[in-house]
Design brief:
The chain is an alpha/beta fold. About 50% of the residues lie in helices and about 10% in strands. It contains 40 helices and 34 strands. About 40% of the residues are buried.
Amino acid sequence: MAHNDIEDMLDHLRRIKSRGDLNVVKIETLEMELRFLRTFIKYPHALLPDSLIEIRKKAKLIAEMVHSVFGGISGECKTSLNVERLVSELQEFGEDNGTSLIYINVELNDSFMLEYMDYLDQNLNDAPKYLVRSVAFFAEKINILQNTDRYLRQVKIIQNKIRFIRYLYGAEIKDYIDREKLEGMQARIQFMADNVRQFCLALWIKMDEDGTSDIESKPPYLLCLVVIVELEMKKIFLCELKASKFTQSRTFKDKKLPKGFSYQLHCLLVYLRDKKLDNFPTIVSAQNIDVAIVFLSVFLGDIPNHVINGNRLSEVLEKVGVLAGDILCIIQKQLLSGSTIKDDAGKIHLGMIQIFEKIEDLKAQLERHYKSLKYRPSQFPTVGGLSFLDSLLRKLNEMLKAKTCLDFILKPHIVILEKEFSYLTSVFRDVAKVQHEHEILKDLQRRTINLAYEAEVAIDSILAQCNALWHLLCSLPTIIKESKHISAEVTRMWSENLALKSCSMVEPSKHMSTQPKNLMNGEEIVGFENDTKKIIRYLTRGTNELDVIPIVGMGGQGKTTCARKLYNNDIIVYHFDVRAWCVISQTYSRRELLQEIFNQVTGSKDKVDEVGKLADMLRKSLIGKRYLIVLDDMWDFMAWDDLRLCFPDVVNRSRIVVTTRLEKVGEHVKCHTDLYFLPFLTSEESWELLQKKVFQNEACPPELHDVSLDVARRCKGLPLVVVLVAGIIKKKKMERSWWNEVKKALFSCLDRESEDYSWATMQLSYDNLPDYLRPCLLYMGMFPEDERIPVSKLVSLWIAEGFLQNIESGRLTEETAEGYLMDLISSNVVMVSSRRYNGKVKYCQVHDVVLHFCLERSREEKFMLVVRGNIQPSDLKESRVSFSFSNELSKFASKTRKPFHQHLRSLITTNGGESLYWNPFNQVINLMRLLKVLDLSSHKLAHLSLAMFETIIHLKYVALCTDKFDFHGKSYLPHLETLILKCYRRTQLSTSFWKMKKLRHVDFIKTGFCWENQIFEESSKMENLRILRGVEFRLNTDCLNVLVQRCPNLEELEIFFLCEYGRNIDEEKICLKLESLTQLQSVRLFYPLSAVVHLPSNIKKLVLCGASMESTIFCIAGLPSLEYLQLRNLNVIESEEWCLGDITFHKLKLLKLSYFNISRWEASEESFPELETLVIKVCYYLEEIPLSFADIPTLKQIKLMGCTNNESLLASALRIKNEVKENEGCDRIDLIEATVMY
């Protein structure tokens, strides 16, 4: 419809209103409605479809109002105005469902611009009246607007300012400046006017709706846009129109910026950043605009009030406002024209040059202010420093390849840091290889590691926009300067060829003397009876050749005690011609060792100074004799290599016993006999030893039996700890209260001598670890005492923390981390809690001695902090914090609104408890922006969402337990590698999940996470994803096919296929294809009945649940690499018998049948030639295990779970066990019965 008809109606209404023969209120209301409608019909550009629908609804209402107003007017008036024609047009417009008002962006000329502002002026003038007439709105929404008068004043201010801008533009500017500046002015005015129009539209069509937040918050934003126009006008008048009266007036002098200007300016930049820039002439132009926007956003997000204030700050903010206007002008001009011609490209390029020049001026001004501030470095942990340097260098190299705008801004700094740290790391690593030590060089290495931590904090703070300006303009330049200084110092040292001291042995701990004491020597010995018998057999039987028996165990476990018991055994004394005992320890002299062994073997007291001669004398003295040599406490391969040629093999069953903490040393020295891993004392043995040490020849009083047994158990089977604890208790051995005190705090009451020795035991192990393993060990202190730590969790945490050194080409990070764990286990500082079917460690733990050492050492190193009581804000100043969850966290959250100390990178809660139906972390989570690790899984929290973590962009590991988790929204975590979610309500995945391309491990626990096909439409490949558990699909192939395409490198997969009741699905026609996942090792599938599954041939572990027997046999028949097979809830439709026929599982080690409703099972020993474990769980109807299982030579264990009432099944298992025993003469098969908790 034509807006001219609306103009005619408005003119006519003004005339008839003056006569007073109609209801004035009705006429004024109609006038307002028509003025609003006129604006949106005349200037409908870039209106959204939803808005157009609302405008048409309004048009229909206005048609009714016209009928109402003109109902009592004479026919002459109606004829002259042609009211019926206008009403008809309004109704037709209201019914139009087409696109009559849809326009693309339009660039307005001068006359239209002036008219546009006139219309908006009238609409803003009507706004207060419109609000006043909306009584219902004020009655319901007064609490939202809070201060109506202030709100209306803001609207009036905007109207007056736009009126003045319209006057200046029309009378003073448009005809007096060049075309280029005029276009810039017009772009700013039109952008401002379009936003005012949107505000008026919201007032007009949304007054009777619930959503008023946009209306409420819009005036401050509009004021910001008005100021941007005013700043450009100020520049024009001061530079181009100096003769104008406005130049000399107070119009543009020292104008106070509106409250919240910086925040609204930031909102504008966010809007401009999100605009579609696909039609820019070059990618470079678009990227340059992004870079400019990001720099200004960094400034606005971190206004340096403590550095710049008052008029200086206003001056800087004005410059930022002008720059924002320049950027807006370029984007607006390009979007309005939609042109990519060469002239426009040139203008944009020139405009960007000018913008960057202004930004450099602004940056220089800020740098001058920041130079007055002093940079104070912090103290970071240096343990595992070289590993951290490797991690940082990987990060810097990734940033150099990245294309994000903040990375681009940081690139000049990153290039320098990467160069300096690469050089220093290579030098320090070379020094470590040759085992040089030099105090100056050590100090430089400590300073470099600390500087690297500072650099990471600075970079991450800038990326997270947390105190970003400070780090960009102050700390980062200082760090670069210091790194160059250290590099120069290191270079100078090498050039001067400073003499460095070579060290081939580990230095003794300062807590222990060079000659170790053996608290067990000469004391009562308890335990080790079975171990002694076994090792005696190794020593007296077996091969005639020389053999080495390595005894491996952790410090304080009793290796020396056991070896001493063997050494003094009558059988051993009688069996060997000569014996010698030698302590190797950490530091040793080859000559002294040879001398000691020689003297014991020969009984001579002579000393020989020449090592070669002494070695030859020892070798000759052993020839012809059956000898036993005990080499106690060996720490290094070199010690064995220095001695082994002195021990001749005369084929007479001579033996050497080596005790060591290090599995690698044991592997190196062994010959024919495998390593003997010394077990811990049982509780009874510990109790017996404790009683002997405390009461000597006396009996333990009956009233102390229970508490003394508790204390013995607390010692966890370590003889050394038992001895140390006994030394404490002896002081007040008859007082029960004293026993209880010791039980509660074993390690806080040790006397000085015991404390030194206990510390030294672990200190020696720690000192002997490679640098890269030390942080891995200390990290064990993050877990509670006696915690069984899942290896998969521990490995993911180590990776997230950056503990891994440079990874070998082609090797996965998980494999490297698992290798680290095996090294710690080999060093006997970490214990294996349980293993998987294939021997890999599933759970691990540390002894309390080790745990307390880790906690104490971590405190000294400032490596981490474990909080046992209520957590305080000061606790969060550490790098890593582990604490027991409590509601106290919310108390200090309300006391601070500033981000917590920037060093906090890891936060882990450790205790469980009742669910929280509120979330205390909502108040503090955004104050911890540099977190890498966040584990809140110990406690169930209320509803959580991905948007909640939007500002914590550096997160690599997240573990949560919540009632529901919402993935929807634009937020995502770009660096996340591990995501573990335990949810109690099914959750829908969104596209945000698929943007997290660095994900490696995803585990959805309790209730699955589901998605639909549309989730994948815009997603890209997740090539890093290795583990995906707990996803849910409907039983169709579309989602699965897309998953296979998007995640090609999966190694472990768990899927629940949902039954859709009411839908007619032919399951036999459904084929689930996974064979293209060539890296897949482990699969868990829960699917109904007859669907067919195609798996890759390299599958090693398979769990199938709910399928039919026929589809299962088809699925598993062609899997030659299968090692673990669990069949659960299989449906046997046609028969109750399971016959494997000629199917053979060549490598199967474990077979588990759960809730199987078969009664008969036919299988031969050829079906499972390498089976080691058979588990049958709740198979009520299965009559027996095939007797052929007795002929499987590798079978070691049969485990029956929940089969107590199935007597025939138990009898068949016993028959198999007995037959093996009769045929082979050994009790090879371990039969276990276990109950099942439902």
